[in-house]
Each structure stands twice: as C-alpha cells, then as structure tokens.
Amino acid sequence: xxxxxxxxxxxxFGYSLEQFLALPSRxxxxxxxxxxxxxxxxxxTLRGISNSYTGTxxxxxxxxxxxxxxxxxxVINESGEMIGIAAMIKSDKDCLTNI
Length: 99
Known about the structure:
Layout: H1 8-13, H2 17-22, H3 34-47, E1 49-50, E2 55-58, E3 64-67, E4 70-76, E5 82-89, E6 96-98
Antiparallel strand pairs: 1-4, 2-3, 3-6, 4-5
C-alpha cells in the first residue's frame, strides 16, 4: 500500500488530502477577506508570482488564522497555459497566528 504524504496545508486547514484538493480556493478565506484575496490573485495573474502572501484564512472548523509569510505563483502547463495556482508558506509557528 502506498503511503499518501500529508501536506502542511492539510494540517493548518484541517482537511483530508481529497477534501483539500477539491476545496475551491475562495473558500479558504472568510467572506470579509475576499477582496484582499482577489487583489492578491490579480497580482499573481499579472506578475506570475507574489512573495508577499499574507491574509486571514479559515480552517475546516471555521477557526480563523493569519498567514504572514508566503509565496503564491501560477502553475503553467507545457503549452504555457495557466492551469492553477500554488502556494507555499513557511511551516514556522511565527507565520501562523490563530485569531
């Protein structure tokens, strides 16, 4: 049996791998933070990457937490088409704060 790795994002958002991969990214931010999230995604669309990924997010239990350091970038296929967006945040407790 193949062992499925646990993503750090699964730990902080509280979802199984299947749930996390199926979650629309807009649901990772509370409604009052959608404007900030959309502005960040617009920057990624224009520049390809943002190294100032911050924001309030919501876990599977409805608990809000703040990400203070991260990067987010376009995922491009072999044809040069954008097929998604990926994010990386430090796994440092100082970069995540429950609110």
